[in-house]
Design goal:
With about 450 residues, the protein is α+β, with helices and mostly antiparallel strands. Among the domains are: about 70 residues, no CATH class; about 40 residues; about 200 residues, no CATH class. It is built from 17 helices and 13 strands. Strands 1, 2, 3, 4 and 6 form a five-stranded antiparallel beta sheet that branches. The protein has a four-stranded mixed beta sheet with strand order 8-9-5-13, with helices on one face.
Length: about 450
């Protein structure tokens, strides 16, 4: 799938999404035309891949102002529908691994099991074991560059009415998306998370087969399990709640103790093994470590201070932490009380004795951060904080869809009592290793 000029444009997809959002905001009922537009939008984004599809994936699980039926259509983007043809797959694999595909894999299923924004995944077999082979689309890195160049042209204008540095945000996106196209870096990140969570029986990080991986091909152990849609339909609340606890523990340990986050929490990046004698009810397999952001340690310290101040209802400590976090863009006009309300809402699931997620909670959070916020023009956005916000709000949106509940306060207390120990993202793959690395498969 080489990206060509005749692909549907990002702007055409944005226009379609805008029409749908506008109809919902006006309170209009969902009709046949809305569903047709939703199908058109899904098809456009699926065909485009790259940045456009990545945005579509985010929209599919956040409770943005689109009809529920349209968000269900967009959910198909989490695993994709349109993949590249077999001859392109063969060319990418053989160029990356330096051998014929039949020599690299004993068996290879040409029908992709997932076709996402940067690459598609095939099931294959190596040394008698099932593996997942992620193959990058030719030209996807260039498509990111072109899309971000277009965004960059309007970034300064778009940020004039706020304290956000638009150019810095675009540069942050450029760096992270460039990293995401490097499967060697992803393999190292996957190894780092496998080491960090090696003692957690409910966290599964698939092993990486380094001798079948390269810059545009990543081969990992295959993990059997259910997708998110099946989990949403799970009638057993015990299992849904156990999985929610694992997702919270993984995400917030990454944020508050490791200082390195898997910043793409869309549901297509998780698989949920069925519980058995070897798998607890809360088992989650984390499949994608392309979008991994190592946070500056001062930011991690400030995030820990913010949540501790919210937990303890300590306003002076909160004010100091918020300044240290770097989100106070215009100090004389910044409304600290409103921002405390925002952070209290965001961390309520962690600070309450017990919390039940629903869509109303998520929508309330977006309303607090909306254009009517007194801080809409005074709040700053440190570039790295973009991914923190994506992780936190994305996780809560997912748990709302699961109708999950639980007691997460002990998890928070334990994390804040422990030290910050960042893992190394620069070990393992590419250092002469030739055997599978990783854990939990």
């Amino acid at each position: 799938m080489v990206f060509m000029a005749d692909e549907p444009s990002t702007w055409a997809a944005a226009w379609t999404a805008g029409r749908l959002a506008g109809r919902r905001l006006l309170g209009r009922a969902v009709g046949e035309r809305d569903l047709q537009l939703g199908e058109q939008l899904t098809s456009q984004l699926d065909r485009m891949k790259g940045l456009a599809m990545k945005v579509g994936q985010i929209v599919s699980y956040l409770d943005v102002p689109l009809p529920d039926e349209v968000q269900e259509q967009l959910a198909r983007l989490q695993t994709g529908q349109r993949g590249m043809p077999g001859d392109e797959v063969r060319a990418v694999v053989e160029a990356a691994l330096g051998m014929e595909l039949e020599a690299a894999f004993e068996a290879f299923d040409w029908e992709p099991v997932a076709a996402a924004s940067i690459g598609q995944v095939h099931r294959a077999r190596v040394d008698g074991r099932a593996v997942a082979v992620k193959v990058q689309y030719p030209g996807v890195a260039r498509s990111f560059t072109d899309d971000l160049r277009a965004v960059g042209r309007i970034s300064s204008l778009a940020s004039m009415a706020s304290a956000v540095d638009g150019r810095a945000m675009v540069e942050e996106l450029r760096r992270r998306l460039t990293e995401e196209c490097d499967y060697v870096r992803e393999a190292r990140a996957q190894l780092a998370f496998a080491r960090a969570f090696g003692d957690d029986p409910e966290v599964c990080v698939p092993q990486v087969l380094t001798h079948r991986s390269a810059g545009t091909v990543l081969t990992s152990a295959w993990v059997e399990g259910e997708g998110f849609s099946a989990l949403e339909a799970e009638v057993d609340p015990v299992r849904r709640n156990a999985i929610a606890a694992t997702l919270v523990r993984f995400s917030y340990r990454s944020l508050l103790q490791l200082g390195v986050i898997q910043a793409d929490p869309h549901p297509g990046n998780f698989v949920f093994p069925r519980p058995d004698a070897s798998r607890p009810a809360g088992s989650v397999a984390f499949l994608d470590f392309g979008c991994v952001r190592a946070l500056p340690l001062p930011m991690v310290d400030a995030l820990r201070e913010v949540v501790a101040a919210v937990r303890d209802d300590d306003r002076p400590r909160f004010r100091r932490a918020v300044v240290a976090l770097g989100v106070v863009g215009r100090p004389k006009k910044f409304d600290y009380e409103h921002f405390f309300a925002v952070m209290e809402h965001l961390h309520r699931p962690l600070c309450s004795p017990r919390f039940s997620f629903d869509k109303a909670y998520v929508r309330e959070g977006f309303a607090l951060n909306g254009p009517r916020s007194p801080n809409a023009r005074t709040i700053a956005m440190p570039p790295a904080y973009l991914w923190v916000a994506r992780l936190q709000w994305g996780l809560w949106s997912i748990l709302a869809r699961l109708r999950a509940e639980g007691s997460f306060r002990p998890v928070l207390d334990e994390l804040l009592d422990g030290p910050v120990v960042p893992p190394s993202l620069d070990e393992g793959f590419g250092r002469g290793a030739s055997s599978p690395v990783g854990g939990g498969a």
